[in-house]
Amino acid sequence: MSSSPVIFCRAVSKCYNIYSKPQDRLKQALFGRWRRYFDEYWALQDVTLAVNAGETLGIIGRNGSGKSTLLQIIAGTLRPTLGAVEAHGRVAALLELGAGFNPEFTGIENVYLAATLLGLTNDQINERLDDIIGFAAIGDFLEQPVKFYSSGMYARLAFAVAAHVDPQILILDEILSVGDIVFTQKCMRFIRKFKERGTLIFVSHDTGAILNLCDRVAWIDRGRLHDVGPTKSICRDYVAAMERDRDDSSSFRVGGRPREAPSRVTLPVRDPRADLLESSNRRNKIEVFDFDKEAPWYGTSHATIVDVAFERPDGERLASIIGGDEVVLRVKCHSTVSLAHPIVGFQIKDRLGQFLFGDNTFLTYVGTDIAIEKGGSLSATFRFQMPYLPSGDYSMVAALVDGDQDNHVVHHWVEEALVFTVHSSHVINGLVGIPMNEITLERHRA
To answer: Is the pTM for the entire model greater than 0.85?
Structure first.
């Protein structure tokens, strides 16, 4: 990734004139030099942001925070009221569904229209038309006006065009939120390949996708650049802020500190014959680090998680696990208030923040009376067979809430409650490997 900016937003602001009545527009045109007949709405205010060549920048924020307005200004489809934007390179933008399409034109006609607007000649479009049609995969609908398209078909065609105009800068605004899983996976394969050669700006409400794709994240809030920085920390703060807004109490807090990367432990030298018998380079060795009471957290803190640990089924605390073994995850909690319907849960994430697996106590105890009195304690255990994990670093979220899965108060949500490192693994592809009950291979005679 180059350190030279290919996009630079300098103090960008955008103001819209809001008229309370239609006739006020005419009054403004006739008498505007003496009186103002509108209210100003600043969708963006003083946003300064640089995007480096080869970087993938994520943009997150609430609905109406100004994300789409910023993208339109960067793409050149909207002029800022104040400030300026510099963009160096061909920009392909997928903003509102169907932007750049004429609803009366057929799909093929809109391919030529959109590709021309993005800088291709007719000869270049003809050369790439079969690839565009194959990527879109909407069949006979290509000959129909796009006003009859579903949102997913719009997205397929728009993405197919943008993917084949050789952009140096690609801007995506929630494009992966529509369409089926086959289309989404095809787009993700293209995006990952594009990241190797181009600059990507990606807007999504899906923090999992942001964590998976982006090098940095810009958080836009109420038209202003609230924060910009490393993907993991910005997403964590954003999720905590969304939870704070949802919580109707005045005691919601955010605390803790990021855990330092675990130091690599050099495994002791062993007799090679014992190594050969007891382990191999494919054994799924998982080193578990202690529960961190200072890990980043958010919630009311009226009830807190005081310990998280892996144990053997007989109760022995574990500092290491072998993939495929049966383990017990124990989460201990203490409450300074009464809890009517406590729920304890956990999530396992990889180093990119992708959610791998997890569970909670809700379904097991729904409809039962398991209330906790003020000053009481509780513990939750989850007994399962540990999946095989690829080599790398992992973290666990532990959470304690009161209510149900849809409506609840978050008392303690602890990011990185546990971290663990997988030193070796036989898993090459996929996010996890599943322990098999039985695998057979039989030869049959012809």
So the answer is: no
